[in-house]
Amino acid sequence: MQRRTFKTALGFALTLAALSVPQLATAQAWPSKQPIKLVAVFPPGGSVDQVARIIGQPLAQQLGQSVIVENRGGASGAIGTAAVAQAPADGYTFAVVFDTHGVNPSLNPNLPYDTKKDLTPLVLVGTSPMVLATHVSSEYKTFKDVVDAAKAKKNVSFGTIGNGSLGHLAMALLGKDANVEWTHVPYKGGGPLMSDAISGHVPLSIASVFVTKPHIDSGRMRPLAVTTSKRAADLPNVPTIAENGYPGFEAPAWWAVLAPAKTPPDIVKRMNEELNKVLKNPDVAKKLDAQGIDIMGGTTAQAGAFIDKQMNIWAKVVKDNGIKAD
């Protein structure tokens, strides 16, 4: 009887062990099945593409696995994001997104994915100020000059990288705070915007440090203010909009890495740890700094809270100003 009981217990234990081995093997196997794909949700050459490539190489070295950057641009990042949201949640497809990720749900209620339900934030890569700037020969010498001109009912126009862009929404929010109106001139990207800005065809531009600073350094443009709560390290003498009498004003550009929502928790945890390790790599820090990006990092919960806050802020601005997507 005892022998039969022992055999039964042994058989049960062996069955449990057999069941647990595949699970353990599966957990240990990641990542080895196939290359890991970072989907940059904007075309090659822009900041999202640059961020994906900067973090991709050291991530591959840490994981001992190939990491491929795939550009899936279009619809302000929505096309690439949809591809990731609909991809198998197996730990081999991730998205590198821009601040448009927090705006798209408000501008386009018919997105082919649910921003909160279909995607899991892994890490906030970093933030960057946008710069309100003008041509060096402009009548605007300070940020106050711009607001004073608008209050005097002069036609103050500003250019951005597109309708519904963060620059557009930031100026709409600022217009409400200052109780002024100005005219938005949308461009199809940073290149066309800067081309007109440095030639004086558009009086003001609001764009990222990465796009604007080379023209400030060349002496063709004058920076008037930055949109972050603190001054930019690259432009330490340029005041924030908050310093100019609008306390609490903040509109940072940002980049984050996301995963499909049902990605296994252990992979989410591992990727967060690996990405934080990447962001602490001195070579990565140097390259991101050259893009004007302040590294953030942190937990998945912190990334999620940041993105939710951005979505809530800009949803209100879109609604209050009746802003529509192109």
Descriptive keywords:
alpha/beta; disordered N terminus; 44% helix; 6-stranded mixed beta sheet; 326 residues; globular; 5-stranded mixed beta sheet
General description of the model:
With 326 residues, this protein is α/β, with parallel strands linked by helices. Helix 2 (47-63) packs across helix 9 (265-279). It is 44% helix and 19% strand. It is built from eleven helices and eleven strands. The protein has a six-stranded mixed beta sheet with strand order 2-1-3-10-4-11, with helices on both faces. It has a five-stranded mixed beta sheet with strand order 7-6-8-5-9, sandwiched between helices. The termini are far apart.
Show the helix and strand layout:
Layout: H1 2-29, E1 36-40, H2 47-63, E2 67-71, H3 78-85, E3 93-98, H4 104-107, E4 119-128, E5 130-135, H5 143-151, E6 157-160, H6 166-178, E7 183-186, H7 190-198, E8 204-208, H8 209-217, E9 221-226, E10 253-260, H9 265-279, H10 282-290, E11 294-295, H11 300-321
Parallel strand pairs: 1-2, 1-3, 6-7, 6-8
Antiparallel strand pairs: 3-10, 4-10, 4-11, 5-8, 5-9
Helix pairs in contact: 2-9
Give the gist of this structure:
With 326 residues, the chain is of the alpha/beta class. Helix content is 44%, strand content 19%. The protein contains 11 helices and 11 strands.
List the total number of helices.
Answer: 11
What kind of sheet is the major sheet? 6 strands, mixed
Q: Major sheet: order of its strands?
A: 2-1-3-10-4-11
Structural class given helices, strands, pairing? Answer: alpha/beta
Quaternary status? single chain
What share of residues is helical?
40-55%
| Beta-strand fraction estimate | 15-25%
> What is the mean predicted local confidence, pLDDT?
90
Distance between the termini: 79 Å
Radius of gyration: 24 Å
User: What is the number of E strands?
Assistant: 11
Order of helices and strands: HEHEHEHEEHEHEHEHEEHHEH
Task: Indicate the low-confidence ranges by residue numbers.
Answer: 1-27
Q: What coarse outline follows from CA principal-axis ratios?
A: globular
